[in-house]
Every structure is written in structure tokens, then in C-alpha cells.
Specification:
Number of helices: 11
CATH superfamily of the largest domain: SCP2 sterol-binding domain
CATH architecture of the largest domain: 2-Layer Sandwich
Distance between the termini: 11 Å
CATH class of the largest domain: Alpha Beta
Number of domains: 2
Radius of gyration: 18 Å
Largest sheet: 5 strands, mixed
CATH topology of the largest domain: Nonspecific Lipid-transfer Protein, Chain A
Helix content: 40-55%
Shape: globular
């Protein structure tokens, strides 16, 4: 695995989910209830991002959004290499550099933010010995599947922009937007422009291609490797339509997602 690609996935696909976690998980929301604090993450070689917490909610910030009001007085954590950041995300002990103005807010990262990331892990990496019991809970199954989908398709965009093989695939893709949807559920729009990809939650009104999963169970089984897309398609539970070069190359990128998130 490419360390920079993995770090970018950790930033913009894994930790990005904290925005949605605070919407769907009461425990995570309660941890930041009544608090207003922004934490910015900068990793060498990666595009920075920030998480702005405000009274139980969280907003993921990237690109131009990092110039907004939320960044005033933010705690800024910097990592001198993608390897160090990845070690921290994997549970290792790494001390990042931080700005002096952010020192009073370090307690939030050491205590509250740690609780939130553990809640995220609870959904994204269920205990194998308890997964059947957890999946029997409809609310947990829905949250787990939606967060898995958000992670996978945001990771796909980072792989296309950083991974050497992923970049080759991305440069074969024509410009346009692919809507990835769960029927009657969530959607992710993946935009391709000049060989670079970006992902956003929602549906584009004029996609050039669509990938539609029939229900939550189908997307969960596909993302967990319990079934393949072609079998689901043959059973009428998974459909694609639109520009074939976009869909074909996106499927090639999806094979790389498992390598980084498996």
C-alpha cells in the first residue's frame, strides 16, 4: 500500500465519517453536546481537512471551506509524514505537532475525540464474535452499512488521486458524474474531471452513469465481500446504467479499495 494514499483515505474517507456519526449516533453526539471546537489535521503530502464540532453536530471541511470562520482558534495537528499519521489511526502512539493557541483544547482530543473515534470503530469494524448479534439490530445494521458505503466510495476517490495504479485508471475515465445509490436510501456522487475524482454525499441531478443497489443488505454483502456485484446483478438486486467507460474503470478502482480498507 502507498502510505500517502492510505493517509488520505484515513483523513477524507474514514475520519470524514465523524460528520455523519454525530447525526446517527446519540452517544457520539452527546460527547460534543454544548461544545464548539474545530480540529484541523495536516499530513505531509495530503490535502488537509478539519472537523468543526458545534453543540452535538460535526461538519467536515476541505478545500475552500478551510478558509471559513470555523478555523479561527482551531486546534491544528500536524504530522510530518503519512506513516506517522497512519500509525496513530491504527492505534499506535504518535505525538503530532500542534499550534500554541490550541494547547487549551488538547484535552478534547485526548478525551472526547478518542471516545468519538471509538464509536466510529464500533460501527466500521464490528467485533467478529458479535457481528451476527449486532446485525440483528436494524438500526445498527443501517448505520454500519451506510458508513461502510460512505467510507468505500470516498476512499475510491482518494485512491484515484494518490495511488499510482489508481491514477492510471482515473486518467482513462471520461469527465462526468457517477451516482452510487441505495434504492430509497443514501447516495454518493463521484465526479470525474481531468483524471481527478471527488466524492460528495447526495445525488447529482444529471449523472453520466449510475450504480444502484437494491437494498441495504445487497450493498452490505458486496462491501463485505460476501457476494460479488455480478451475482447481485444477475439476481436483479444491483443495476448499472449510463456511460460504460466510467462504470468499468470505477469497478477497477473498487478492487483497490479492499486493499486499503480490508
Amino acid at each position: 500500500m502507498d502510505a500517502t494514499t492510505k493517509a488520505s483515505i484515513n483523513l477524507h474517507a474514514v475520519l470524514r465519517n465523524i460528520q455523519d456519526l454525530c447525526e446517527i449516533d446519540k452517544e457520539a453526539s452527546q460527547v460534543v453536546a454544548g461544545k464548539k471546537i474545530t480540529v484541523k489535521f495536516s499530513v505531509k503530502g495530503c490535502e488537509p481537512m478539519a472537523l468543526a464540532f458545534n453543540d452535538g453536530k460535526c461538519k467536515y471541511l476541505r478545500g475552500e471551506a478551510l478558509n471559513g470562520e470555523e478555523l479561527k482558534g482551531a486546534l491544528k495537528l500536524s504530522f510530518s509524514s503519512p506513516e506517522k499519521f497512519n500509525t496513530l489511526i491504527d492505534g499506535g502512539k504518535v505525538v503530532p505537532m500542534f499550534n500554541l493557541l490550541g494547547i487549551p483544547k488538547l484535552g478534547f482530543v485526548l478525551k472526547d475525540f478518542d471516545v468519538i473515534t471509538k464509536r466510529l470503530e464500533y460501527y466500521l469494524r464490528p467485533d467478529p464474535s458479535k457481528v451476527d448479534e449486532l446485525y440483528a439490530d436494524k438500526d445498527y445494521f443501517k448505520a454500519n452499512t451506510e458508513l461502510l458505503a460512505y467510507t468505500a466510495f470516498h476512499a475510491l476517490a482518494e485512491i484515484a488521486n494518490y495511488d499510482p495504479v489508481g491514477r492510471e485508471i482515473a486518467h482513462r475515465m471520461p469527465d462526468g458524474v457517477i451516482n452510487v445509490e441505495i434504492k430509497d436510501g443514501i447516495g454518493v456522487a463521484i465526479a470525474v474531471k481531468d483524471g481527478r475524482l471527488s466524492a460528495s454525499i447526495g445525488r447529482d441531478p444529471k449523472p453520466r452513469a449510475k450504480m444502484v443497489f437494491g437494498n441495504l443488505d445487497v450493498v452490505n454483502r458486496v462491501l463485505n465481500g460476501k457476494t460479488d456485484a455480478y451475482s447481485a446483478m444477475g439476481a436483479g438486486l444491483f443495476n448499472i446504467s449510463g456511460l460504460i467507460p466510467l462504470l468499468d474503470n470505477m469497478n477497477h478502482l473498487l478492487t483497490l479499495v479492499a486493499k486499503y480498507l480490508g
